[in-house]
TrEMBL record:
Signal peptide: none annotated. The chain crosses the membrane at residues 279-301. It comes from Salmo trutta (Brown trout). Involved in transport of proteins into the mitochondrion. Essential for embryonic development. This is Metaxin.
């Protein structure tokens, strides 16, 4: 590792954290872990809106030399060029092993991770979509989760070479079988070591951590992968150790945010505030419904106004019918 130079001006944009994680996103976790391992000084921006990043996606590294970078591999290469290299002490064989295991992660574990978070209906509706809707700004929170889900589905179809791939028991069984085999190989390779190549972490540790720790920590209703990971003690301890060593404040920060969000004082003290919040919630909900309808084309203002002038009752019935369809789809 080198002394800090121009890296002090680099800014990293990544998804916010939760569940005691520094970020909820695998690729962001890889970059965050590697930067910690290499000692790279970065100005960190944790956000819930990818449109606020310089690339429109997350993670994104804004540099003074190479513009903005998004792919974890490109960001890691940039850090290495700045002499922040977590792989400096690896042998040629260990470097080859790193490439082989990263390819294995992308081929066998990544598809299952995408499926369990974005495609599995129960996990997506109850956890993934809800989390992104709560952390994205209005009105982006109405369509951002669905947009990301479509991107992830296309990514999975491309990796699997199946343009018709959808959620289903057979697909899930195959993906999870490959993922569990991958975890078993990782556990065998790690053995009793602290990190994959001894006592110092490398880029392989960053990739494995980024893929595994969301499985370990996220509260997903369908937790088949989590159960298998927890059965592999050395891999579970590997993830927990990196969190404790390199991200020790994450759990306390999450707890502080939850505590600070609670209102002070009793219900009687906050009664006027509660009424204002209730009224504001109603107004926001109405605005949200109208914005969503306009954005998705469910309500066409010009058409409805003309129809209402020509046939007032049918026009009202048409608008009511559209609203009922929207409710059923929601």
């Amino acid at each position: 590792m080198a002394a800090p130079s121009q890296m002090a001006t680099s800014e990293l944009y990544c998804w916010e954290g939760d569940w005691d994680l520094p970020s909820v996103d695998t690729e962001c976790l890889i970059v965050l872990a590697y930067a910690k391992f290499a000692g790279a000084p970065l100005k960190l921006h944790k956000i819930g809106n990818p449109w606020r990043s310089p690339t429109g996606s997350l993670p994104a590294l804004k540099t003074s030399e190479n513009g903005s970078l998004s792919r974890p591999s490109d960001i890691i290469i940039h850090l290495r060029k700045q002499k922040y290299n977590a792989d400096f002490d690896l042998s040629a064989k260990e470097g080859a092993d790193t490439l082989a295991f990263v390819s294995l992660l992308e081929e066998k574990l990544m598809p299952a991770l995408v499926y369990t978070r974005w495609i599995d209906p129960k996990n997506y509706v109850e956890v993934t979509r809800r989390w992104h809707a709560e952390h994205a700004p209005f009105p982006l929170n109405f369509f951002l989760p669905g947009s990301i889900q479509r991107q992830q589905l296309e990514r999975l179809r491309l990796v699997r070479g199946d343009e018709e791939l959808t959620a289903g028991e057979e697909v899930e069984k195959e993906l999870y079988r490959d993922a569990k085999e991958c975890m078993n190989l990782l556990a065998q390779r790690l053995g009793s070591n602290k990190f994959f190549f001894g006592d110092s972490p490398s880029s392989l540790d960053a990739f494995v951590f980024g893929y595994l720790v969301p499985i370990l920590k996220m509260k997903l209703p369908n937790g088949s992968l989590q159960q298998h990971l927890k059965s592999l003690d050395n891999l579970s301890h590997f993830c927990s150790n990196i969190l404790a060593l390199y991200f020790p404040s994450e759990g306390r920060e999450d707890f502080s945010r939850k505590v600070s969000s609670q209102p002070e004082g009793g219900d009687a003290d906050n009664e006027p505030g509660k009424r204002r919040k209730q009224l504001l919630s109603v107004l926001v909900a109405l605005g949200a419904m109208l914005s969503y309808a306009l954005l998705t084309g469910i309500v066409a203002i010009q058409h409805v106004q003309q129809e209402a002038l020509d046939h007032r009752s049918p026009g009202l019935r048409s608008l009511s019918s559209n609203e009922e369809e929207e409710d059923e789809e929601g």
